[in-house]
Amino acid sequence: MEKLNVICVDDQREVLSAVIQDLEPLACWLNIEDCESGEEVLELMEDLDAEGECIAVIVSDHVMPGMTGVELLTEVSRDSRFKETKKVLLTGQATHTDTITAINTAGVSHYFEKPWSADELVGCVRTLVTHYIFDKGFDYQPYHEQLDQTVVLERLR
Prior knowledge:
The protein is built from 6 helices and 5 strands. It has one domain: Rossmann fold. The chain is globular. It starts with a strand and ends with a helix. It has a 5-stranded parallel β-sheet, sandwiched between helices. The protein has 157 residues and is of the alpha/beta class. It comes from Vibrio thalassae.
């Protein structure tokens, strides 16, 4: 069974804590990591990859000092080791241009504006991890009960 990670990044600790808390229902089968900068995410990804672990989803704020969320997700999308990693942009301050750039260059799968719905975020991450498992060709059976059943049925046709 693959060790699946979800990485959440936001430079504001209280927002990051809220995201982690909202994703708690998934913690029984996913490892949820938190980072406070894009640079920290890239370091963590290197470590997890070196340990043979998988990064299924990154949930990133956009406006952060140093490296923006779009810059981070674009860099991740350029690394062939993480080509299947799904990306979510979570922000209250991205411009229309930022959002288009995120979709076109970073391969962002979903975009949430702050404040977000916890149920929608959990559902989105569950769906994206389900796609990730199938895209990577992993055996979905060990995770079957946790996955988005609509996607499972779709993928098995």
